[in-house]
Amino acid sequence: MSRENGRLHLWAFLQGIGFFPGGWRVEKATPDAVFQRAYYERIARMVEDARFDAIVFGDQLQGRDAAGRTPGRLAIPTLDPFTLLAVMAGVTSRVGLVATVSTTYNEPAEVAAKFAALNFISEGRAGWNIVTTVHPNSPWNFGEPELLEKSARYARAQAFVDAADAFWRQAAGHPAANAADALRNQWFDIAGTLDFPTSPQYRPVLVQAGQSPDGRNFAAQSAEAIFCPAPTIDAGRAYRDDIHERARALGRDPSKMLIMPGLAFILADTEEEAQRKHRHVLELADDQLCIEYLSESIGYDLTRLPANQPFPLDEICAACEFPAEDVRRMLTPAVEAGLSIADACRDYARKPRGHAIFVGTPEQMADRMETWIDAGACDGFTLQPGYMPSELELFCAHVAPLLQQRGLLRREYQGPTLRDHLLGEFRA
Ligand SMILES: Cc1cc2nc3c(=O)[nH]c(=O)nc-3n(C[C@H](O)[C@H](O)[C@H](O)COP(=O)(O)O)c2cc1C
């Protein structure tokens, strides 16, 4: 990678209101803005000025109030990523634009065509975070009773991506070697009828976040950038080594895939002030909200249970919608520690989904990022602002310039496409 491109990659994972479940209640938060075009335009310009590689939007296919379990307070909707990214493309010229899209509840020709559109109108800045959908309520929105089993979801994902790739290659005038396979499974038959001009990036950058063996193999096979939760340097290094080993076994060059662990953050001028802000955002998630939050993550209505008692593990595992063994593994430590439901849910809401959390000053955050990069724990970070937009603003204004001064982050983009930002070289 060219030095001018920096050693550290930055992606902004934007979840509407931010990372912490109580974040939308912070005085500086602007939850209403997630419905306004100007908000997305401003964020896109800010992130590009700070020289991020890309902006990413997630994908939630489940009804958040399914089974009456998670009433209104968690139900802040996520808007369609393609629409938001098209708006952002209109006010920027370099930053990458990544939409998360499921391969379990879409069809390849349709998804390939949407990404082709985003890639054209952004002049080669599109990326696809490929997910297989984990929430067990999602199938209800697609007329299906239950989620496909995980290895079947990943097998479908691989065939889906092959078919989409055949579409993009054919559209770019380079029929894929595997086009025949794609045609055989009857998923792909329209690209040949289209006459596309050449795009500066023939297909979107492929992104993945597999954790299970099936998921990691899929990521190692297909992804150019990979998200993961990594709470410590050792966890990051172990994940990166594992993916690199899987990639080598598949004949891929590991230097062509970036490992980007999630990093949530709260910033302030002093460490004490940052700690105070962190405590405040945690306090804003009251017991009721924390119990609803964990309820949604395991697919079981914990609000019906006495909050001052421990989890009745057998009762929950017999009825929860997520796989019982995963839920048992997740809740057992709290039961063994003798925690009440309220305390365990509060703990969970403090560290959502196992991601690393940084609380401190811009200088400390730059130090920490540099340490992780130097230790080979990652190639960059998928940043998840503690709440929006103020924490992202602080990062762009104060941490990004420090990273640039240290030669870690590009001062200028080296090329026009998202793939250029990842690899520091032009690859058509
Ligand atoms: C940073 C990050 C963001 C993710 N975003 C989404 C998302 O928006 N939608 C989704 O269905 N899954 C999302 N996932 C879940 C992954 O796709 C994946 O299912 C998860 O990491 C577990 O891996 P496994 O599928 O191999 O078990 C995300 C994971 C990570 C680490």
TrEMBL record:
Short name of any one Pfam family annotated for the protein: Bac_luciferase
Keywords per UniProt: Flavoprotein, FMN, Monooxygenase, Oxidoreductase
Residue span, Luciferase-like domain: 35-377
GO molecular function: monooxygenase activity; oxidoreductase activity, acting on paired donors, with incorporation or reduction of molecular oxygen
Tagged with keyword Metal-binding: no
Keyword Flavoprotein listed: yes
InterPro entries reported for this sequence: Diverse_substr_monoxygenases, Luciferase-like_dom, Luciferase-like_sf, NTA_MOA
Binding site for FMN: 59, 100, 154, 212
SUPFAM superfamilies with a match to the protein in the record: Bacterial luciferase-like
Family assignment from sequence similarity: Belongs to the NtaA/SnaA/DszA monooxygenase family.
PANTHER family attached to this UniProt entry: ALKANESULFONATE MONOOXYGENASE-RELATED, C2H2 FINGER DOMAIN TRANSCRIPTION FACTOR (EUROFUNG)-RELATED
Protein name, per record: FMN-dependent oxidoreductase (Nitrilotriacetate monooxygenase family)
